[in-house]
Amino acid sequence: MKFDIDIPGIIKSIKEKDCKIAGVQFPEGLKRQAIRIAGIIEEKTGADVIISGNPCFGACDIDTALAAKVDMLFHFGHSQMGVHENVVFIEARSNVDVIPAVRAALEQIKEDKIGVITTVQHIHRLKDVCAFLRENGKECIVGKGDLRVGYPGQVLGCNFTAARVDCTEILYVGSGMFHPLGVAIATGKRVIAADPYLKTAVEVNPERLQRIRGGYIARSMDAKIFGIIVSSKTGQERMELAMKLRDIAVKHGKEAHILMMDLVTPDQLLNFKADAYVNTACPRITIDDAERFHVPVLTPQEFEVAVGEKEWDGIEMDEILDSI
Ligand code: SF4
Predict the structure, then answer these.
(1) 182: Cβ below 6 Å to ligand 1?
(2) Is the CB of residue 284 below 6 angstroms from any atom belonging to ligand 1?
(3) Rounded distance, CA 158 to CA 149, Å?
(4) pTM, whole model, 2 decimals?
(5) With bands split at pLDDT 50, 70 and 90, how would you rate the model's confidence at 2?
C-alpha cells in the first residue's frame, strides 16, 4: 500500500514554530516509515526528533507522555480527534484508484439513492466516487457524521454516524470488513463493501457476527464477577459509562470491579480472576480480539442483555459518539 504523507508541511511548521524538539507517533501500519521520516525531519530542520515506541491504533490514542516532553508532537495516519495543545495530526492518504472497486459495486447497488462512506485513507476520493455514481444514474448521499470524525462520509471503527443518512443502502469504500459490518449492524442498512486494493465489491452479511456475539452473551449469563475495563487513552476513556455499568451489575446481584488500563490485551487480563469482562475501551478490541481472551469480553450493550437489564433484540454496535 502506498500512502502520501505531507513531510514538507511538517518541516515548514517546525521551522515556523521554531520547534527544537519534536515527537513523532505512528500507527502500527506506518511504523516502518518512522525512522526514515524522523531522519528527514532532523536533517531538514535541525530539530531533535523522538519517536513514540508505544502501540498506536487511532487518533484516540495520543502519546501524552511524549507530547509533554516535546514542543510539537506529530501524530501520523489519522484525522484530528479532540483538541490537544501541541499535537498536529498528519493524515496518510492512499494513492490507490478507488473507481475500479466502485465500478465492481455498481451492479450490486439496487436503489437509486446510496449513502457513501470511507475511511480517512480514501476520503479525498469521495468526490470522485460520487461523480462516478452520478454518471451512472445514482444519487449519492454523504452524511456529515458527528464531531468525532474529521470529514463528512468518514467512519471509524467506533463511530458510524456518517452512515446514518436517509437511504437504505450504503457503499463502503475501503479495505477490511470491520467498518462495513459495523455499519450494517449499527444502521440496519444493506451495505456493499468496495475494496480498492482488491478491486472487488461484496455485500456484507452480518449474520455470522450476530451469532458469535450471541454466544458470548450466553456464556456470560452465569458470570458472578465482572471486570469493567476503562481505557486511559485520550479518546477512549469512558469512566462515566463504566460507573453506570457497575451500578447495573450490582442491581442484578453481580459483583463488578472497574479496571483502568492503557493497552487492553488478553495478556493484561489473564491474572485477574473475573468470570467475564465488559469493554468500554476501543470497541474493536471486543470484536477483533474476542477469541484471544480467556473469558468472554462483552460490549456495554451485550453486558446489559447478559445481566437481564434489557431484552436481546439482535446485537448493537458499541460506538463512541461525539464524546470529545
Ligand atoms: S477507539 Fe478504536 S476504532 Fe475508535 S478511533 Fe480509537 S482505535 Fe479507532
Answers:
(1) no
(2) yes
(3) 10
(4) 0.94
(5) confident
